[in-house]
């Protein structure tokens, strides 16, 4: 690999060093660059003990930007786990979605420890996050051992060192927890500060919000407005108000959506980053307005039905 | 029917969440990148030395407060060197101004070399990971070595305008600042707003790139490297004169900076 890269490049120098540092698997994590690309790594992490992920070993990709370590790595999980969506960049402030809080003195190891520490925390609607039930997560943890990565040929059964009674839990846990706490804290402050930075987007979504909240006395309309608002604050609150104001049945319906409708939802995403790149926030805001309007239409539609005094059979 | 509809609603909400978050992130990042690129193409990281009189053009002629203060500043200083306003200007201005002063002061240079070499050991003993900070430290030491060979100012200026070198120096100065704040956290704790610990403050406001600097950062860096910094404060305040602060107060300043709200440039007598 040495011959292929410019060793004077700071990123190459740093990544070589990190590759050497992480060469041997530990009980808790392992990561190495792909054979033909120093800027793409594959990693395996052990699910934290005392959590729903106990016994699971999870595999994923790390994509390093050419400016690394000045810009953060992107982390993408490949093993279904019930906490992070697979195949999608994870929304931690440590990864690419909040570059302003990444610190150049952090490393790939820091990112791995953060992932481990972050697994048992609540997803709460953050991008790339899932809130599966403990049972589902436990089942996925068990299944994760069978995962074999086609790209790097890594099998989860042999990816990490076996846990021994002596080594158990010690090397990573306190550090991981501390880091995860610090990172979730940062996610809040970083997003709120960046909101003020883009007045364009903020003002557009505010108009959307006003429209939504003008729906008379609709508790869900307000919840939604709140949500639109709190998305800007942080990823850590939005789920709370909705799940409280929804009936169990509504929640079930939503859960089902979470679980089943992902493939249908996905096609809407790619349009976005592309739009944002092409014409920044203008195209982005336009799409946002259209979506908010659609949501509003759905609400009005529902109200009309409720107002008609129709009786519905709620039994499934 | 209702169920189907609810489902639809649930989906659109969930979708909105995701899209909002993604839209914000992507749009903000794209916009910040654009702004940064625009700034990057128009302003070098560290500029050539310019006559202080150019400041007058930056303010309206009838902006009496600033025009008066610029005249006051001209009594003490003759030249200015501007830095790119990218949130790292304090560190970059300090780094350049100080290393430039070392070009013809070999005694100070040797004193500083020892302090700079030791600074990494302090950080490592505080728990900073050695292999992640050593590249930054090496860049810092290399720049000091370069000064030892007494190059022309232009050579030093070229190094400072090379993004990777310049940014690595900024990272290291941020680490030194953070390390000092955390070593003296009992003292600095009282100056931190928002109920944060010194450690949290460092991780949010000191170590990440592009976070702007305040008094507390300047005090810490000046003390950590034993280099005295004088800052002239020029804002819209009354009085017609420019006030200055010296960090630490009893020192003999080696570095002279001009502060205008949100930005630092380098001043020369």
Question: Overview of this structure, please?
Answer:
The complex is a heterodimer of chains A (316) and B (269). By secondary structure, chain A is an alpha+beta fold. Chain A is built from 11 helices and 4 strands; from the N terminus they run αββββαααααααααα. Helices cover 49% and strands 9% of the residues of chain A. In chain A, strands 1-2-3-4 form a 4-stranded antiparallel β-sheet. In chain A, strand 1 and strand 2 (37-46) form a beta hairpin. The longest helix of chain A is centred in the last third of the chain and has 37 residues, at 271-307. Chain A is globular and about 70 Å long. Chain B has 269 residues and is an alpha+beta fold. Chain B has 2 domains: 50-82 and 228-268, Phosphorylase Kinase, domain 1 (2-Layer Sandwich); 87-227, 3 helical TM bundles of succinate and fumarate reductases (Up-down Bundle). Chain B is built from 11 helices and 6 strands. Chain B has helices spanning 2-42, 54-58, 64-76, 89-102, 106-125, 130-148, 153-160, 163-183, 185-188, 198-206, 215-224; strands at residues 46-51, 79-83, 229-233, 243-247, 255-260, 263-268. Chain B has a 6-stranded mixed β-sheet. In chain B, helix 8 packs across helix 11. Chain B is globular, with a radius of gyration of 22 Å. The termini of chain B are far apart. The chains are: A alpha+beta (316), B alpha+beta (269). The interface between A and B is large, with 77 and 51 residues.
Task: Fill in the keyword field for this structure.
A: 316 residues; alpha+beta; B: 269 residues; 3 helical TM bundles of succinate and fumarate reductases; 2 domains; 11 helices; 6 strands; disordered N terminus
């Amino acid at each position: 690999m040495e011959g292929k890269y410019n060793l004077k490049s700071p990123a190459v120098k740093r990544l070589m060093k990190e590759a050497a540092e992480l060469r041997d698997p530990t009980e808790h994590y392992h990561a190495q660059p792909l054979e033909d690309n120093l800027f793409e790594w594959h990693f395996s992490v052990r699910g934290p003990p005392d959590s729903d992920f106990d016994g699971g070993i999870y595999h994923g990709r790390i994509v390093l930007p050419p400016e690394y370590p000045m810009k953060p790595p992107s982390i993408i999980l490949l093993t279904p786990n019930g906490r992070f969506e697979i195949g999608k960049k994870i929304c931690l402030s440590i990864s690419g979605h909040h570059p302003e809080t990444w610190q150049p003195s952090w490393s790939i190891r820091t990112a791995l420890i953060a992932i481990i520490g972050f697994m048992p925390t609540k997803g709460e609607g953050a991008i790339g996050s899932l809130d599966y039930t403990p049972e589902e997560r436990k089942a996925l943890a068990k299944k994760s051992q069978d995962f074999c990565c086609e790209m790097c040929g890594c099998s989860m059964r042999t990816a990490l060192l076996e846990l021994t009674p002596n080594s158990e839990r010690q090397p990573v846990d306190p550090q991981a927890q501390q880091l995860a706490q610090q990172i979730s804290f940062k996610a809040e402050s970083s997003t709120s500060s960046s909101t003020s930075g883009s007045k364009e987007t903020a003002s557009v979504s505010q108009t959307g919000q006003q429209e939504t909240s003008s729906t008379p006395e609709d508790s869900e309309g307000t919840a939604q407005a709140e949500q639109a608002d709190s998305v800007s604050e942080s990823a850590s609150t939005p789920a709370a108000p909705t799940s409280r104001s929804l009936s169990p049945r509504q929640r079930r319906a939503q859960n089902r959506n979470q679980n089943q409708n992902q493939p249908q939802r996905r096609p809407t995403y790619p349009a976005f980053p592309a739009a944002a790149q092409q014409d920044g926030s203008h195209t982005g805001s336009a799409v946002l307005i259209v979506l908010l309007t659609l949501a509003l239409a759905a609400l009005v539609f529902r109200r009309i039905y409720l107002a008609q005094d129709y009786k519905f059979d709620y039994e499934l | 029917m209702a169920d189907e509809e609810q489902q639809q609603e649930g989906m659109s909400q969930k979708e909105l969440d995701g899209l909002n978050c993604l839209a914000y992130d992507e749009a903000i990042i794209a916009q910040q990148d654009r702004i940064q690129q625009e700034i990057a193409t128009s302003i070098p990281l560290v500029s050539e030395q310019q006559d202080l009189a150019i400041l007058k053009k930056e303010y309206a002629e009838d902006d009496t407060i600033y025009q008066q203060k610029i005249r006051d500043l001209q009594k003490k200083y003759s030249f200015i060197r501007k830095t790119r306003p990218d949130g790292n200007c304090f560190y970059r201005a300090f780094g350049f101004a100080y290393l430039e002063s070392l070009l013809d002061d070999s005694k100070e240079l040797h004193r500083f070399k020892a302090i700079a070499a030791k600074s990494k050991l302090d950080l490592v003993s505080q728990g900073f990971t050695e292999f992640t900070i050593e590249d930054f430290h090496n860049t810092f030491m290399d720049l000091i070595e370069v000064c030892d060979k007494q190059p022309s100012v232009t050579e030093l200026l070229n190094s400072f305008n090379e993004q990777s070198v310049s940014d690595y120096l900024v990272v290291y100065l941020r680490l030194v600042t953070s390390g000092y704040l955390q070593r003296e956290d009992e003292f600095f704790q009282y100056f931190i707003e928002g109920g944060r610990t010194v450690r949290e403050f460092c991780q949010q406001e000191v170590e990440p790139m592009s976070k702007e600097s305040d008094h507390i950062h300047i005090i810490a860096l000046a003390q950590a490297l034993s280099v005295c910094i004088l800052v002239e404060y020029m804002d819209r305040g009354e009085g017609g004169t420019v006030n200055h602060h010296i960090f630490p107060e009893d020192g003999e300043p080696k570095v002279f900076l001009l502060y205008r709200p949100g930005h630092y440039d380098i001043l020369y007598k």
